[in-house]
Amino acid sequence: MVDWGEAFEVFFVGFGGVVTCLVILQACIIIFSKIASGNEKTGENKNNG
Amino acid sequence: MSIEIVAPMPGIVAEVLVDIGDEVSTDQELIFIEAMKMEIPICSTSDGKVKEIKVKEKDKVEADQILIVLG
Amino acid sequence: MWIIGITLITLAIRKKYEPLLLVPIGFGMLIINIPLSDLMKEGHLLWVFYHFTIDRWDILPPLIFIGIGAMTDFGPLIANPKTLLLGAAAQFGVYMTFFGSLLLGFNLHEAASIGIIGGADGPTTIFLTSQLASHLLGATVVAAYSYMALVPIIQPPIMRLLTTKEERKIRMKKLRNVSKLEKVGFPLLATLIICLLVPNAAPLIGMLMVGNLFRECGVVERLSKTAQNELINIVTIFLGLCIGATMPAEVFLKPQTLYIFFLGLVAFCFSTASGLLLAKFMNLFLKDKINPLIGAAGVSAVPMAARVAQTVAMKEDKHNFILMQAMGPNVAGTIGTATAAGLFITMLIK
Q1: pTM listed for this prediction
Q2: What confidence tens digit (pLDDT) does each residue in B13-66 have?
């Protein structure tokens, strides 16, 4: 017999985990992009100078 | 008045289907651009005459680069 | 089995269905079913390849991922990080199919391996199945690659069913340019986050990202070229042959193989649908509407699913170009499926 308890656990942890992971990754990319674009401007100045 | 047909995405010009002086109509396919191994037809946005072709086959194009000028 | 093997080779040659994989797989199937050739007996040629590179240590799928990483441009994803959510939503099909398989009488390990077909990611399917249910390896992998080849046939009806004409006509803003710093930072960031959260996804995600770092950092072009060409080609040869060789008639010709093919199709449909539906749901909140068709590209199958989205969109409006936007969920799907595989391993191997 299938252990449905475990099956649901796999589903919730699994699907929830994937979503959580990618949401966190998304947040980090947004933050990183902001920082990176800030740096870029100062970086360009240095290169030009 | 001239109308510019621009590349919607970076890619490689696969085929140019029209010549200078051709009459073209709206939605007619003008150029094929290859991106992600897919050939995408770029269609005319209006009726007109081909005034200038700025690219040739195998050219690399950037997004927003002008491909064809209609007059 | 000879017939199936030759059919696969024929399909690959005539219809160009994933020829890089189906040719070696078909040949592997053929040669393993020749009586007395014994290539899969302990100590013989294909057994050695299979045993050491897939069965025992599972190293070939992560090696393929180095190549995929080196070939993938994550730019569209970085420019529009929202699309990561679509890549995650498309994994829903994986879990639906997981339940479906349980209902049809497969055990938890087998069900996970069948569900992952819905991620439309060959190497990940191999990676997970060989660890959880290696007796199903042949069937799940052939199902995954056949359906990936059939994406242009499976997806469009679902896409038309679940979206309105107006939605398919939505034009999306051009993607912004992504700086080099962001592109180099992305593989590092993604590795850190995903591997910290799901350590068991590290073999796949780590290799994917190191390949991508080779590509983007700009100073190791030689490594990047090798990963994109020689490395992935060599690995594909062995991977295909070994997978084919796991299908002797007595293992493959069983009703459960048919179930797996059926469930794989279900998985693909659910993944496509859930990507589309999440995109429609997100549109309720977003100012810059997204075209729901790119949600369907959340099943990985890079770049086929993105091309399908473009084709369907262009049928409604010849001037609508969503190919690059669709690459976002598309590559996100790869990350999502690999993460899902890592989580299955975490939960099921104790």
Answers
A1: 0.92
A2: 999 999 999 999 988 999 999 988 889 999 998 899 999 999 999 999 988 899
C324: chain B residues, CB-CB within 8 Å = 9-10, 35, 63
Give the pLDDT confidence of C133-149 residue by residue, as tens digits. 999 999 999 999 999 99
Closest CA to C95 of C82, C123, C79, C114: C114
- Residue C190 CA to residue C185 CA, distance in Å, equals 9
3-state secondary structure B16-61: ECCCCCCEECCCCEEEEEEECCEEEEEECCCCEEEEEECCCCCCEE
Distance CA B71, CA C106 (A): 66
Which residues in chain C are closer than 8 Å to A24, comparing Cβ atoms?
193, 197
Neighbour count for residue C157 (Cβ, 10 Å):
11
Confirm or reject contact between C307 and chain B (CB < 8 A). Answer: yes
Residue with tokens 């040719």: C23
C349 CA: distance to closest CA in chain A (Å): 12
| Structural domain span for residue B33 | 3-70
Indicate the residue type of C207.
M
Q: What is the CATH number of the domain that holds B28?
A: 2.40.50.100
Structure token digits, residue B5: 């047909």
Query: Which is it for strands B23-24 and B38-43: parallel, antiparallel or unpaired?
Result: unpaired
How large is the ipTM?
0.90
pLDDT tens per residue across span C304-321:
999 999 999 999 999 999
What total of structural domains would you count in chain B? 1
Picking from A22, A23, A32, A39 by the largest number of C CB atoms within 10 A of its own CB, the best residue to mutate is A22
Chain A residues whose beta carbon lies within 8 Å of the beta carbon of residue C95: 11, 14-15
At C237, is the secondary structure helix, strand, or coil? helix
Helix (H) / strand (E) element for C272: namely helix C255-283
Where does residue C317 rank: exposed (0-12), middle (13-18), buried (19+ CB within 10 A)?
middle
Rounded to 10 degrees, the C-alpha dihedral C330/A13/C97/C193 comes to 20
Nearest CA in chain A to C74: A29
- With CB atoms and an 8 Å threshold, state whether B9 touches C323: yes
With contacts defined as CB-CB under 8 Å, which chain A residues touch C348? 10
Per-residue model confidence as pLDDT tens digits over C230-254: 999 999 999 999 999 999 998 899 9
Which residues, in sequence order, are CB contacts of C143 under 8 Å at separation 6+? Answer: C117, C260, C261, C264
Q: Would you kindly state where each structural domain of chain C is located, as residue ranges?
A: 2-30+62-166+177-348
